[in-house]
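Box 3.1 A note on notation
Throughout this textbook, protein chains are presented in two layers. The first layer is the amino acid sequence; the second is a token string describing backbone geometry. Keep the layers aligned when reading.
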Amino acid sequence: MLQDRHPEIERLARIGRTRLANTPTPLLHAPALAARLGRGVEISVKADAWTGLGLGGNKVRKVEYELDPARLTGVTHLITAGGPHSNHCRVTAAAAAHLGLGCSLVINGEPEDPARGNPRLHRLLGARIVTIADAADRTRGMAEEARRIDSAGGKALVIPIGASTARGALGYVHSLVEVHDQYHEASGPDAAPPWIFVSSSSGGTLAGLIVGCAILGWRATLVGVSPDEPAPTVRRKATELAEAAADLLDNTGDDDRPGSLQLTERVEEMGQAVLATSDFVGPGYGHDTPAGEEAIALFGALAGVILDPVYTGKTAAAMIAWIREGRVPKGAHAILLHTGGHPALFR
């Protein structure tokens, strides 16, 4: 059993979470897309857009751990924050509705059209929208909303922006284990580790992949593709979160054996091997790019996979460019970890 070979997985099972995602999500082979690129690289998509809750995406796995049942005792409302088109806000609102809780979303800025995309979904899911002027005020806005709920006799649980915390990153340890098992089932036990491309901004998803690879001793090449931040920032944030998640696992066990797994050392080593790029941001966060538009068209027409222009389109553009340039070598296998975000197509 996996738990017998990797005691970290048994430790992970001890950490509370509220099951919300439809998992395991499939690993979809894309032979027609690989043939079109013609570089001898196999391509697959880890379909985490299909996690289900509130139209799915990577935030569902992360929110599961933020909503540890022990943390929900007496809670009447969930609070989080983000931009007008936040996927994380959508999933948090869906989780609150599913659990019968109220939800407040602290949103910096007004959407161009509140009847489209995620802004419409935030409202359809019953969330109270608190609009603030600037992203720098989101933490203060969440605290003020929590005080308002408390004064009215409720109790709020504040979920950090993006659920990019040590706890949230644990959701992507599960995803990495799924990818590992699905990849070897399809490609054989001796297949060389793949290249895994993933959108990375707040860092929690990439952090979980780092921890998962460290646990399994799997030398997959992890590539974090930024939609906004400089590449060194993306790598630093993900590595710091991975180390915090490793520390959480290392100290979740018998009381007299803290740190017995020595996982943090392995995570540090894996983090040093991570690649990151900000070459595909274009004019800025949320702005379309020609490379992203091409990637969205290719994945749609040749793989039946719908990407978005903010995150996955740019990540797929990076993967395509690296394959074309030979950075992903002939004979390798490239996997796009699809983090969701479809509503951005309908902004």
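The chain has two domains: 2-57+165-346, 68-158. The mean pLDDT is 95.
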